[in-house]
Amino acid sequence: MNNIPTVAELLRMKGISHLPPETILNYFKILTDYCYDHPDSCQQEMRHWKNWLEQVERKMRNHSLAYYYYFYESHYWTIRNMVSKKEENDWNNLNQERIISSLRKSFVSMAQIKDGDYIPEMMEQILSNIGTTLSEMGRFIESIRYFQMILNNNRNFNMAWGNRGVCLFRLAQNIADNGERYVLLKTARVCFDKVKQDHIVTEYNNREFKRIASIADSELQKIPNHIKDRYRKLSTDIGTSDKREKEYRMWALNCRLFLNVLGDAGIVDEAASDNLCPFKSLRKENNYYQKFDGFFNHLIEQFSTARWFYYDGAKLDPKKQHYAEKRIYYQDLGDRSINTLSKEKIFASFRTCYSIFDKVAFYLNEYFELGISNNMEINLRKLWYKDYSKNKQLRRSVQKHLENPHLKALYWLSKDVYYNERDEELVEPAAREWNKIRNHLTHQFIRVTPTGWDQSYQLDDPASYCISYDDLKDRCLRMLQLVRDTLIYLSLAVTYEEYRHDAAEKPYFGYLNIQLSDEMKKKLKDKE
């Protein structure tokens, strides 16, 4: 572009959709730079920018579309957030909602680019911004996964090291068990030690990382030596001689699918278990806690079952016939539909995941006394609002808990789960497809085809949804990870609430969490 227009010249343009994508992107960059430099006086430019966004989205492809979502749509909502003076603790921050949605769209667009045109540096920036934005929403458990994705491919991405350390530190601050706190703080400290100031990590960032590292050092000194000795050298070898069990546990560790916060710090044997349990004080009768312990036990049971169903189904080769599939005669539709035991196990896992979301909503309504009397109206998407169908005003009972950061995380996570036509924007662009899969699994029909098979041939029937086998596995695995994070946030939200009520009188445990070991469970079964 020889003649670079001024901002004033851009504002006189009525439309830009007829221009080449490269020119459009350059025009967006001019507006972006101006608005970042003048956040208090760029209202006219912002209106013009929004008008452009509505014109050109369909024109963009491949690189242009990824750049569009990342550099321009997400930056538009970031600047609008600055202009409107929205705070991070504002639960109904629609600008924040659109920022993360744009970043995720950019991630999907970049992931679809072929190897020769793929830009790893841009993907790293997208992942970093997604992780940072989720952390601002209180969803720091998920942020750790995004920063780790960067570090798996680029160990020299300093900002990812620092931000991963911050998230691990925040997680440690919310954990009561000293052993787990020790591991998380030590891992955070390792992350901070790897940070070096560069063109991304500014002097301010570096100073902030060092400040948090200093606090982590102080917290580590408070942990008793006998606990440090026990957790100092955790084994990376899974403690079982059963080869099949070891393979299963290593797979779950690599996918971060155990209900154990140590899994967010790394792969160690101690993390290969589901030991999640909310803290309980003595502020109410023991029967009260038995009720919620029973709820939580059921959630753990359902999640571990869904995890196993997925693993057992996904490891089976759909091309090989299981003995339970023999002598079953299907009609030949000519579309190579997969009718296997492995597919049905993955279906069962997906359905179970959605049922867990509903049960978490029920738990929240009961524990936080949100006042929803009709159990049929309880789901994780509608739970927060006084009248979901008319407006998005939070319930008064929810507003009493706005200071609970983990409840806020669940609120934002709920936007990833359910889809409704009334929603203008979705935090998770894949939510529509997740909901479509769920509805067809539960109420209609779904056809699974081999990966790479031409899906242009489909039955002309809206009641039948078509998806490839690999896409089905990917969707279900993502759903399992989301459920795992949901249950951790639930545990942290309850723990926060118990401490809030109990802090004035009993700053430490007033109720012993009794968990059944494998040996204890075996003894109980033998007595039956």
Automatic annotation (TrEMBL):
Residues 290-497 form the LA2681-like HEPN domain. InterPro entries: HEPN_LA2681, TPR-like_helical_dom_sf. SUPFAM superfamilies: TPR-like. It holds the Pfam family HEPN_LA2681. This is LA2681-like HEPN domain-containing protein.
